[in-house]
Amino acid sequence: MISINNLSVEFSAKSLFDNINYVINKKDKIALVGKNGAGKSTMLKIIAGLQKPTSGTVAVPQDTTIGYLPQQMILNDTMTVVEEVRQAFSHLDAMHDELDRLNGELLTRTDYESDSYHDLIDRMTTLTDRLAMEESENSEAEMEKTLLGLGFVREDFNRPTSEFSGGWRMRIELAKLLLRRPDVLLLDEPTNHLDIESIQWLENFLVSKADAVVLVSHDRAFIDNVTNRTIEITMGKIYDYAVNYSKFVELRKERLEQQMRAYQNQQKQIQETEDFIERFRYKATKAVQVQSRIKQLSRIERIEVDEVDTSHLNLKFPPAPRSGDYPVIADTVGKAYGDHVVFDNATFTIKRGEKIAFVGKNGEGKSTLVKCIMGEIPFTGSLKIGHNVKIGYFAQNQAQLLDGEITVFDTIDRVAVGDIRTKIRDILGAFMFGGEASDKKVKVLSGGEKTRLAMIRLLLEPVNLLILDEPTNHLDMKTKDILKQAIKDFNGTVIVVSHDREFLDGLVDKVFEFGGGKVKECLGGIYEFLEKKKLASLAELELSKSPSADVVKPKAESPKSAQAPEPKQQRKLSYAEQREYEKMGKRARKKVEEAEAEISRIEGEIAAVEQEISAGAVDSTVFERHASLNKQLENAMSMWELASMEAESFNK
């Protein structure tokens, strides 16, 4: 559909892209990956037509529409949310105007056999078909579904956009973009300001309704669930894989190993040739052979090994000072701003060593409760911090507290203690402050760089209760992996506020859900929580909605309707909805089969370990493995029960 041909881009005599070629096909879902500065955002801007390459072309067929979501944007502050989003349908008016113009031109033409006349007919047919397709859908209903899916509530629809924060404005622009239904969607970090529920809604939309998608994201679970193709940008070249990100990581490792072997063999050959030339350079009897070797050396095409982060850092926290058994005890804690109740009657106990996630929609009180624990804001109820609890707190404004007049290295050197001081440059390298970057003054760093530096500084302080508020927003996948492993190995207590499912998976053992003014405690990991909430099946809720609920009605309801709403009638599903319902049922049954296969696998491993124990030839870890497998079996049985319940709901 879109062809990128011989694309090259240079900045200050440095090559960003060198003669790149690839094609974006209809229905491709592409993840654009590469280290920071590799050119991912630049590539999106070039495809969108916002930036010109140094050489090469981007061939876009006529009538192909492109939608681009940048990381930063400016919205009109004079409109309400609905008015702003309704602009997504302004292209229909333009299409009607063009169709009227073409009809007028057709009336004056008499060259019925000419190519231009046939082109005119083709253009009119295309426009007519497109209008018929787009206008067959209820635009108001689609608009409401999209806004609700992205986390808005109906009360927000008629609020001015000026009342919303930057993250919510980004959602407004994303809603407009999705409603336009472009042929190609270009998304640059679309999940940065979304909560878990909105991310899952966006995943489902991109998979089921979008055509071609090219996205840049550091959310591994998101790109794994959405994409079927991965394009890596590295050293000015691209590598194109017809797989999702997780499979790409495996294939990339194999490619780099092959490259390294070829590079080492070539280096050995070059060294042997140079040694021969040097040894016999001045011997007349070897002059012919020496000249031959010199020519051979000049003809060798040098193998380059793709840039790889070779720092295999295993970041560890200093040992946590021992705290009391219960670092945090909350009893009927509440917080309100005027008449607006953020949450109320929150009662829970956090035990020493627990790792907990705070999740829920934006604005439901996750960061507010963290501030209550930190003692930064007043609240109602009782909130006790346990004996000898030392809190390490990371928030977005943490970066503003850094000393701008000292260097990056000195910022960390002043808080590091013990053996970790010998690894400061390794740590900085892992967090993208390698080489000369470690000698920069803090005041010249970007906002994202300051955030990462504040994170490192926090991780090196001896604390026993870590509270991290959205710690992964400015971190790439490798750095997130390093941070995640460090938190897993930490022997203190951790509270993480995050929407990054892959980061939370395997990290937390309890989830606190914020919503509707309540804080609910849920045992288990993040994916067990999501299964219980059935957030992955939001589409099922949409199918069960009545048509009357699908239309935006800003006018006030009558007192009668407000007092006694009439029961909604169950409507018959359309053909498309019936097909979608059947697909969801099929997916649910597949989940049951996968859960049963997982149970069989674990039971087989348990049987093998028990055989080892009964044979007497056991190592020191065998009982740990046995206990771990039994816990896995318990979790797998729980997942099977949830999957079975979901599958049964489609058989009713």
Molecular structure report:
The protein is α/β, with parallel strands linked by helices and 652 residues long. The chain has 21 helices and 18 strands. The strands form 4 sheets. Strands 5-6-7-3-8-9 form a 6-stranded mixed β-sheet, sandwiched between helices. The longest helix has 41 residues, at 575-615. The protein is globular. The two termini are 43 Å apart. Mean pLDDT is 80; it is low at 309-313 and 535-571.
List the defining traits of the structure above.
652 residues, alpha/beta, 6-stranded mixed β-sheet, globular
The structure class reads alpha/beta
Oligomer: single chain
Instruction: Indicate the overall shape.
Output: globular
- What ranges have pLDDT less than 50 throughout 5 or more consecutive residues? 309-313, 535-571
What composes the largest sheet? Answer: 6 strands, mixed
In which order are the strands of the major sheet placed? 5-6-7-3-8-9
β-strand amount: 15-25%
The helical percent reads: 40-55%
Number of β-strand runs? 18
Distance between the termini: 43 Å
The residue-averaged pLDDT reads 80
C-alpha Rg (nearest Å) = 30 Å
Number of helices: 21
